[in-house]
Amino acid sequence: MKQKKVIVVGAGVAGLASAIRLQHAGYQVELLEKEGMPGGKMHRIEKDGYKFDLGPTIVMMPELYREVFSLAGRNPDDYIPMEKLDPMYSVYFGDDLGTKYEMSNDLVHLMNTLEAFSDEDAAGFLAYLQEIYRRFTVAKNHFIQQPFRNASDFYNLSTIRQGLKLKTLDSAESFISKYIKNERLKQMISFQTLYIGISPFDGPSLYTMIPMIEFLYGVWFIKGGMYKMATSMERLFLELGGEVRYNTTVEEIVIEDGKAKGVRVNGDLEKSDFVMCNVDFPFAMKHLIKEDTAKGKYTDKRIDEMKYSCSCFVMYLGMDKKYDGVENVHNFVFNDALEDNMEGIFQGELLEDPSYYVYIGSKKDPSLAPEGKDGLYILVPVSNLSTASYEWDEETIQYYRNNILNSLEKIEGFENVKEDIVSETYMTPVDFKDKFNAYNGACFGLRPTLTQSNHLRPQSKATNCENLYFTGSSTHPGAGVPIVLLSAKIAVQELLHDDKGILFGGS
Asked: Rounded distance, CA 433 to CA 294, Å?
């Protein structure tokens, strides 16, 4: 029997994972990518001998990273060697940069940190863990790993009963406040909603499961950096017999008679039995789906009206020294007025005293920098392009650069950081928009508000045409590398369900 062909558009994390799963399932898979390398935002920047992960850097839920290799009968350790980090990260606060808090998922070390705040807050933290773990198991078993192709998949007595257990109406910060009173500790346990591009002050409380996952299961490091995951997935896909074409821009997903027939490249139709789209959903709906009937409710007007995550300004700095005085790979620096900081981001303000994150991958893998040197990756959450009241020009870049470096120099181990810079590269929201088709430059896609989550978020199976599927951060279940890997799993299982009648639920 002739193999059916699937064209996967976009070699981001979800595109690569989908391609592997489909090739393993017996399809002839062709992966088309407009850039010259795999990974999407899990890209790499190389300059002057320094190597930086472009986007995601924090490895959580390693079993989901490993699953795509195990599925194909491979040993994940042969592809993505990992080690657990302890402490997970260091935290500093802007009004007191001389004080460092180290967060560990070792219970003894963690309790010492918590009890330094107060016994009451330590007890509150344990109560928070117990409650959010209950909600996490409900979300994991009934929502995060399930598709909602029909309204009845959500609006039924069983699912609604489970949904009520999630208690999603309060914000992450207000939920944490029920258990913890110290403002700094609250911030250290709620800021992780920024991993998916939303503020802890208005993001649904369910997303406090992100820090819970860190505390219970740890933070990990992949030797070679996060980009190693992208190249290893590409390697596995090729080993399975898949085909990748880089520097290939898809101009249109061709739909005829209510079915996806393939894609248009350089004006020519390239036919396939199915299309799996890993392009950011809002961009794809607005620019790749030309037929209005196939757009359904996702008209151009609707796409513009939807709510989007924040964006990021990232500095990639090659340094002329090793930062031996800095202990941890991951370091977070918070404005003490974090709520005002977050409000400013989502109201489009140029931030006077932003919070930021410093990642030093070369501390764990010296091959990421020239011998005897380190590279600093510094990320600042900023407004996306649809809300920003300012332009991303050289003046804005220098404003944030100088602001952050002036702050960083006040932290022990980073003194004289400006004088140590020998190489500089940046990514702005405009770059994320132009290079990766991130709609409005929103790095994390659609914001996971209550009205843009679960059944109300774009689903894997196209609702208004056949043989077309979507995967990635703007689709269900959402953003963040582990969740995006789940989106690929869901999308492939939806395709298998339609093509072969395979019920959802297998690996």
From this structure: 24
Pairing of strands 259-265, 252-256: antiparallel
User: What single-letter DSSP state applies at residue 392?
Assistant: -
Cα–Cα dist 241/169, whole Å: 47
> 462 is written with which tokens?
């196209």
Let me know: does 45 contact 51? Beta carbons within 8 Å. Answer: yes
Closest CA to 374 of 309, 298, 426, 322: 322
Round to whole Å and give the CA distance between 7 and 16. 12
pTM exceeds cut of 0.85 = yes
Q: Torsion-angle region of residue 271: left (phi > 0), alpha (psi -120 to 50) or beta?
A: beta
Q: Answer yes or no: are the C-beta atoms of 62 and 223 closer than 8 Å.
A: no
Rounded to whole angstroms, the Cα distance separating 169 from 75 reads 42
Angle of CA points 443, 375, 66, to nearest 5°: 60
Strand order across the 5-9 sheet: 243-245, 28-32, 5-9, 274-277, 468-470
Taking only the tens place, the pLDDT of each residue in 153-190 is 665 666 657 665 566 657 778 888 999 999 999 988 88
